[in-house]
Design goal:
Order of helices and strands: HHH
Distance between the termini: 39 Å
Number of helices: 3
Largest sheet: none
Low-confidence stretches: none
Structural class: mainly alpha
Shape: elongated
Number of strands: 0
Strand content: under 5%
């Protein structure tokens, strides 16, 4: 068995790139989640319309002449998902803040 031995750089490493990435990801999650949670500029309505259009295209491509099934997801689902995403973004931002001040 060949073993490569090198100096451990765990004590001297600077995780600034990872912290910037976590902060950017958290900020994006807060923005995207807040947009869905508070229905900014009709984000939920646009998502439901886009989903309905995709289901209609799928029904047309398979030759199904009935109405597509759109009852499974309501606007409440997208608002709930947006609020969960927004809270996860806040958690990422808090984690980044804790790691930066440590």
């Amino acid at each position: 068995m060949i073993m490569i031995v090198g100096a451990s750089s765990a004590d001297t490493s600077d995780p600034m790139g990872v912290l910037i990435f976590l902060a950017a990801l958290g900020f994006a999650a807060v923005l995207a989640g807040g947009r869905m949670a508070f229905n900014v500029r009709g984000a939920v309505d646009a998502t439901l319309a886009r989903r309905r259009a995709v289901l209609e295209l799928k029904a047309q491509s398979t030759g199904d002449l009935g109405l597509p099934d759109t009852w499974s997801l309501s606007p409440f689902f997208f608002k709930f998902l947006g609020s969960v995403t927004m809270m996860a973004g806040f958690a990422l931002l808090a984690l980044t803040l804790i790691l930066v001040t440590d």
